Amino acid sequence: MSALVGGGWGAGALPRAAGGAPPPPPATVTTAVVTKAAAASCATGKYQKQVEGYLKQLGGYGAVTVDGKQSAADCAAIVKFQKRFGIQPAKGLAGPSTFDVAKRLAATKTAACKAKKSGITFCVDLTNQTTWVMKNGKVHYKPTVVRTGMKGYRTPAGTFKINKRTKKEWSNPYEVWLPYWQRFHGGMGFHQTTTYIHDKWRGSHGCVNLLPADAKAYYNIGKYGMTVKTIGRRPGT
Fold first, then answer.
1. Using CB atoms within 10 A of its CB, is residue 98 exposed (0-12), middle (13-18) or buried (19+)?
2. Which of the four pLDDT bands, split at 50, 70 and 90, describes residue 174?
C-alpha cells in the first residue's frame, strides 16, 4: 500500500524536469511505516491475550497473534469484531465488553439447539445471550449477540413458532417502536434493540433484542410458522 507524500499529479502525462528527463517517482509511505503507526495508535487492553485467543478461535476477523501484545493486525481484527457486534468505541482496545462478547460467542455451541434437519430454526442460547439460525440442520446465520428478559421478565426456554411479523411494531405497555418485530410467545419476540445492547445491567421485558443489522437479517429470513428454540437460562433471572 502506498500514498503520495506532499502534492500529487492529476491524470495524464507526468511533468518533465528541465532537459526533458522524467522526474523521479513520487515518494511512498512504506507498509512498515503504516504498520508501525497503526500499532502505535492502538492501546493494549486488559484482556488482550484472551480476546486474541477468542478471535483466533472464531475466525473471520483477520490474522491475530495470541501473545498479549497489540499489533496493527491484532488491532484491525479487534476493530472489525467490535464494529460487527456494535461495541463502542470500536478502537481496538480489548476491554471488558469486547472480552465478554468474544467469550460468549466462543462458548456458543450451535449443535446444542438440536434444530430439525429440514427447514429453518431460529436458535437462542439464553445462557450465553447469543442467537443463530439453522437451515436443514446446518448453520445458516452465524451466532451473534442478543439481550433477553431481565429478572422478573425472564425469557423462557422452549420451542415456539413465529406468529406475527411487522417491520415496525408499537409497544403499548412501554411506548416504544419495535423495528423488525417477529413475535413467537405471548408478547415476546425478536426485534431491534432500542438501547445500547452491551449495557449488562439492562434487559428486555422478555423479548429477544437484536443489533440493527441482525434484526433486519432475521426479518428477511423469517416467515410465519417458522420454529424458534430457546435454550438455557439467562444468568441472574
1. buried
2. confident
Global model pTM greater than 0.85: no
Taking all residues of the chain, what is their mean pLDDT, rounded to a whole number? 87
Q: Is 209 left (phi over 0), alpha (psi -120 to 50) or beta?
A: beta
d(C-alpha 133, C-alpha 123), whole Å? 6
**Would the pLDDT of 120 be above 70?**
yes
Gap between the Cα atoms of 224 and 56, Å rounded: 37
The set of residues, in sequence order, having a beta carbon less than 8 Å from that of 18 and lying 6+ positions away, is none
Per the residue annotation, which of 113, 191, 198, 205 is the catalytic one?
A: 191
Instruction: Say whether pLDDT at 5 is over 60.
Output: no
Average pLDDT over residues 137-165: 97
Do residues 210 and 193 make contact, with C-beta atoms less than 8 angstroms apart? yes
HEC profile of 145-204: EEECECCCCCCCCEEEECCEEEEEEEECCCCEEEEEEEEEECCEEEEECCCCCCCCCCCE
User: Phi/psi of residue 39, each to 5°?
Assistant: -65, -40
- Residue 140: Cβ-neighbour burial (10 angstroms; 0-12, 13-18, 19+): middle
Task: State the Cα torsion 78-81-87-88 to the nearest 10°.
Answer: 50
pLDDT higher for 11 or 104? 104
Does the annotation mark 191 as catalytic?
Answer: yes
Q: Would you state the cell numbers that stand for residue 98, as one nine-digit string?
A: 469486547
Residue 205 designated active-site: no
